[in-house]
Design goal:
Shape: globular
Number of strands: 7
Distance between the termini: 48 Å
Largest sheet: 5 strands, mixed
Number of helices: 11
Structural class: alpha/beta
Strand content: 5-15%
Strand order of the largest sheet: 3-4-5-7-6
Number of domains: 2
Order of helices and strands: HEEEEHEHEEHHHHHHHH
């Protein structure tokens, strides 16, 4: 059940034009804003957003973006389904699929098209790729956007490709959100972000087998932007923060992705999932000593991936 770039949808130009008029009216009738949710987390409040119910990934979306909302919902239903196989029961996510106007009105700090997590409750993704987002994705990659196979029905191939890059980053954010929610932390600072990538990786392996080389290459391309001014020794692990700007953040994401790959390659998907499951149940806490003993290649990864503290 592949969800490759070729399957990404965007709203048609005519739909976008219609929504521009809707957005102008919306500015006078309602205000989108991040507000406290029932658990003290953040949501986006607007009576103008439409609802697409789902078992594990209900979507609230800008009018005119139903096809895109359905495609996004499929991806995150599968991510949540895969994570629930660890035994973690609270795997449901709320997804927002917003137009540029609604994104701006919500006051999100990330630029349009760069997925954003709202605490551990929700993710926000773009409803379509406008010209500014396409240019932004080109800048992230430092070159052309990979084009999907075939011709998307409701977007140009470049717009669909830009949405595909956004969805790739969103799956990493979704893995991190679920890992945070399940308290997948360890006794060293690298363990939590690597477990987040392992969550995302297991879903990719199950539902989009064979894509990891492509995904790694795309993350590497974005990471190259964050490496331009890095000293030859690299960045200190202590400087990692999930709120870094994308190029700097991607520098670390590329390395955490490699660690997750080492775990899956050494142990297989089933045994890798058991690592998460045991940590969630509390029967085997995540420790550097245990992980390196199980996956010896992680020792070399640690020494080669980050600068040595002074």
């Amino acid at each position: 059940m592949a969800l490759a770039l070729a399957g990404v949808c965007a709203a048609a130009p005519g739909v976008r034009a219609a929504h521009a008029a809707h957005a102008a009216h919306a500015a006078d009738t309602a205000q989108l804003a991040e507000v406290p949710g029932v658990a003290g987390h953040r949501t986006i409040d607007s009576p103008l957003l439409l609802d697409l119910p789902g078992d594990l990934a209900p979507v609230r979306y800008t009018p005119g973006a139903l096809d895109r909302a359905a495609a996004v919902q499929k991806r995150f239903e599968l991510l949540a389904e895969e994570f629930s196989r660890t035994g973690f029961k609270a795997a449901a996510l709320v997804i927002y699929v917003l137009s540029p106007e609604d994104w701006a009105a919500a006051g999100l700090t990330r630029q349009y098209g760069e997925p954003a997590a709202l605490a551990t409750d929700a993710l926000v993704l773009p409803a379509w790729a406008d010209d500014a987002m396409v240019a932004r994705v080109r800048d992230w990659l430092g070159g052309d956007i990979p084009l999907p196979l075939g011709r998307p029905l409701l977007a140009t191939r470049e717009e669909a490709g830009a949405l595909g890059i956004s969805d790739l980053l969103a799956q990493i954010e979704g893995g991190r959100l679920l890992a945070h929610r399940a308290h997948l932390e360890g006794d060293r600072p690298w363990i939590a972000p690597v477990m987040a990538h392992l969550v995302a990786r297991l879903a990719w392996d199950r539902f989009e087998p064979g894509r990891m080389s492509e995904i790694a290459a795309l993350v590497d391309a974005i990471a190259a932007r964050g490496a331009r001014e890095v000293l030859p020794a690299g960045r200190l692990l202590a400087t990692w923060n999930e709120n870094l700007a994308l190029p700097e953040r991607a520098y670390f994401e590329a390395r955490f992705l490699r660690a997750a790959d080492l775990i899956v390659t050494a142990k297989g998907s089933r045994a890798a999932r058991k690592i998460l499951s045991k940590a969630i149940r509390g029967t085997e806490p995540l420790t550097e000593a245990k992980l390196v003993a199980d996956v010896p290649a992680l020792a070399g990864w640690l020494t080669q991936s980050f600068a040595t503290p002074p």
